Amino acid sequence: MPIRYSLIENKLTAAPDDYRGQVQHNGSVTIEDILQKIARPGSTVTTAEGLAFWEELSQAVAAEIQAGNRVVSDLFVVSLGLTGTFDSAQDQFDAARHQLRVRVSPGIRLRRAEQGLTVEQVRADAVQPVLDQAEDFTSNTTNDKLSKGGTVRLTGSRLKFDAADTKQGIFLVAANGTETRMTRVLTNKPSELLFLVPTAQVAGQYRVVVRAKVDGGQVTKSGELDTVLAVS
Question: Which parts form a coiled-coil structure per UniProt (predicted)?
């Protein structure tokens, strides 16, 4: 099946006619969804067994990272990186200026999966919110993480929503499908949303979704940031 993409205006460059490609994913699949496909009739592995193993594997990988190790597999590579600027060769790590970040990159098998992919251009939905960047002021990062109690700026186009309609707004969607609607929105503009991440937000990986009725439409449309962000 071809990978569908559309062209949207690139607001990150000064050129007025620049566009960038945005992949139109067919949907989101959880680990449980994948395991249910593996545990098909006749399989020796059940979904429950697969989930139990995944939990053990996840804990083991996290423990290796916390021990300062790099985890290498044919599917993914997990390592640690530093962000922030050091003022001199004698400067030392300062949690106020520097952050340790977990980095995940594709392994050999996922790199091979890129080979042979075909693409198909489709028209962008004119009334769909488009999310370009999520800037976390607390960690001074972009499209990387969200800090509990911190301020985040979303930029893009067609982002403004009706705050009185609970079906519209900014949502953090966890891997299991649980959604949290952001209630403290400081700025609500077509090209910019400024909101506070709840201090009680559970740490983990989240998709950032904006739902809105735009251009006078009566149907709520949904747009999603390309990158999954970590709440911590």
Answer: none
Q: How far is CA 68 from the centre of its chain?
A: 24
DSSP letter, residue 43 = -
Tokens 């992919």 label which residue?
Answer: 117
**Are 65 and 78 in contact, with CB atoms under 8 Å apart?**
yes
User: How confident is the model at residue 122, as a pLDDT?
Assistant: 77
Q: Model pTM? A: 0.60
**Lookup: tokens for 75:** 């599917």
For the chain, domain boundaries: 3-119, 126-231
- Other residues' Cβ atoms within 10 Å of the Cβ of residue 200: 8
| Per-residue confidence (pLDDT) for residue 11, from 0 to 100 | 67
Judged by average pLDDT, the poorest of 26-30, 103-107, 185-189 is: 26-30
Determine the distance from the C-alpha atom of residue 31 to the mean position of all C-alpha atoms in its chain, rounded to a whole number. Answer: 16
Q: Kindly give, in sequence order, each residue whose CB lies less than 8 Å from that of residue 5, ignoring residues fewer than 6 positions away.
A: 21, 22, 23, 24, 119, 120, 121, 122
By C-alpha distance, which of 45, 44, 51, 48 is closest to 30?
Answer: 51
Ramachandran bin of 27, using left for φ above 0, alpha for ψ from -120 to 50, beta for the remaining angles: left
- Distances from the Cα of 11 to the Cα of 19, 22, 63, 87, 132, angstroms: 8, 13, 40, 32, 9
CATH number for region 126-231 = 2.70.50.70
Q: What are the beta bridge partners of residue 196?
A: 151
| CATH class of the domain defined by 3-119 | few secondary structures
Residue type at 190?
P
In one-letter notation, the amino acid at residue 148 is K
CA dihedral 194, 207, 171, 177 (to 10 degrees): -170
